[in-house]
Automatic annotation (TrEMBL):
Substrate binds at residues 115-118, 207, 273. Mg(2+) 1 binds at residues 90, 112, 114. Its cofactor is Mg(2+). This is Fructose-1,6-bisphosphatase class 1.
């Protein structure tokens, strides 16, 4: 098969009228920035990039050096291109405007610059997650409220996994596609087009150590999976948990499965663990475009009206059948109250 680079793929999508020039340039800029983050993460201890940065972020989390480095790489790369009106990041309380000396574009970019950073020092896959929105017409100095758009309005979403291979997975509403970084050439090459997630699966991902804090419907659902073929589901299920959402989702994009970070008594006051704008929404768009499903346990994630830039939500995503069963148990329990 003749190899198709990301740039060629984007040009073909533009010619087919499925995306405009400004958006495809923005995707190229983000992909190029992620190549620089891949170089930084690959250096590990000999690059002096492991360990704590000594600073904290808006989430009250200690920042890793690579959290800060990745954030700066993405901000710097996207400042001068002319495709953006502003950026927002997991690592920054407020949106970052585009410096006045550079032309402004019509897009807003949100990102988790380094997802799974608690895994960096132990050399487990981490990643970057991003989401692209349209900047509301007439808005020249975007504020947080201008980013609070439903996930259904995303123009593009993607993630890069920095693992044994560096892989970019992307959607802009016409299917979900995978590109693998050819380190020799320095280009992302199309490795899978129009990915489909199997509707059925026998593999689930959840942090089991939180079990005692889960709501009753989640206890029931996971209890039935663990009961296996002798239980009500009459099928054995296997479990995986990397604790890097990008890696857990990439496994599901690759071979199916279901991922949960449900609401539990420990995080109830926060509304969940994972962030809506730069974790749940982009992953939901990617998964749905690959034939999967993504809910909060009570409703479709992409239909949520955001209320805050760093808002947290419960996340159920992956193979459609299992997301539907788990969601049904929650909706049914709520109806019975
Ligand atoms: P960090 O970026 O702080 O490591 O958090 C990773 C994450 O947001 C997501 O990638 C994982 O799915 C989830 O948190 C892991 O949570 P637990 O540490 O509770 O397993």
């Amino acid at each position: 098969m003749k190899s198709i680079s990301l740039i060629q793929f984007l040009i073909e999508e533009r010619r087919a009228g499925r995306m405009n020039a400004e958006l495809s340039l923005l995707i190229e800029v983000v992909a190029r920035a992620c190549k620089r983050i891949a170089v930084a993460t690959n250096k590990g201890a000999i690059g002096g990039v492991l360990g704590e940065a000594g600073t904290g972020n808006i989430q009250g989390e200690a920042q890793k050096k690579l959290d800060v480095i990745s954030n700066e790489i993405l901000l710097e790369a996207n400042a001068w291109g002319g495709q953006l009106a502003a950026c927002a990041s997991e690592e920054m309380e407020d949106p970052q405007p585009i410096p006045d000396m550079y032309p402004k574009g019509h897009h807003l970019l949100l990102f988790d610059p380094l997802d799974g950073s608690s895994n960096i020092d132990v050399n487990i896959s981490v990643g970057t997650i991003f989401s692209v929105l349209r900047c509301p017409d007439g808005v020249t100095e975007p504020k947080a409220e201008h980013f609070l758009q439903e996930g259904t309005t995303q123009l593009a979403a993607g993630y890069v996994v920095y693992g044994p291979a560096t892989v970019l997975v992307l959607t802009f509403g016409h299917g979900t596609h995978e590109f693998t970084l050819d380190r020799e050439v320095g280009s992302f090459i199309l490795s899978r087009r129009d990915i489909r997630i199997p509707e059925e699966t026998a593999e689930f991902a959840i942090n089991m150590s939180n079990q005692r804090h889960w709501e009753a419907p989640m206890q029931r659902y996971i209890g039935e999976l663990l009961a296996g073929k002798d239980g009500p589901r009459a099928k054995d299920f296997n479990m995986r948990w990397v604790a890097s959402m990008v890696a857990d989702v990439h496994r599901i994009i690759t071979r199916g499965g279901v991922f949960f970070y449900p609401l539990d008594a420990k995080i109830k006051s926060k509304g969940g663990k994972l962030r809506l704008m730069y974790e749940a929404n982009p992953m939901a768009f990617i998964v749905e475009q690959a034939g999967g499903a993504a809910t909060t346990g009570r409703g479709r994630i992409l239909d949520l009206q955001p209320t805050g830039l760093h808002q947290r939500v419960p996340v159920f995503l992956g193979s459609k059948k299992e997301v539907e069963v788990a969601t049904h148990y929650h909706v049914e329990a709520d109806a019975a109250v």
